[in-house]
């Protein structure tokens, strides 16, 4: 099992999501998985890159999340890129439908983690960034890094 320094059990992260989107709200949702998928995810074989969530017929599905087949799973392994149902309350789904009805909003999984032995997804309601927003964020990050480096250098003397 992979553990972070902060004490949370993060199994996979979508690092690109915060770079490409402004995350407005985050929901903690469960995922309907098969036993071999859970074992594979616990082994760190999940990838959230290019994944997204979609609402179909009042249900939310996670698309494009890659879970490598479990090595000892043989016939019980499922398709690595299959759609997986996300488990939310009805009022949360209605809220998400309202968000996604607005232009520019989408549902993006931010991370995959364990909570009380269950696999959870941090699902973000996000609005796409323009190229100039991304450049501005990179410039701010770089400036902050430079400032901290100078402060550190000044503390040495």
From TrEMBL:
Pfam annotation, one family: SmpB
Xref: InterPro entries: SmpB, SsrA-bd_prot
UniProt KW keywords: Cytoplasm, RNA-binding
Subcellular location: Cytoplasm
RNA-binding is among the record's keywords: yes
Protein family: Belongs to the SmpB family.
HAMAP family per UniProt: SmpB (MF_00023)
Function: Required for rescue of stalled ribosomes mediated by trans-translation. Binds to transfer-messenger RNA (tmRNA), required for stable association of tmRNA with ribosomes. tmRNA and SmpB together mimic tRNA shape, replacing the anticodon stem-loop with SmpB. tmRNA is encoded by the ssrA gene; the 2 termini fold to resemble tRNA(Ala) and it encodes a 'tag peptide', a short internal open reading frame. During trans-translation Ala-aminoacylated tmRNA acts like a tRNA, entering the A-site of stalled ribosomes, displacing the stalled mRNA.
Name of this chain's protein: SsrA-binding protein
Organism of derivation: Clostridium aestuarii
Gene from which this protein is expressed: smpB
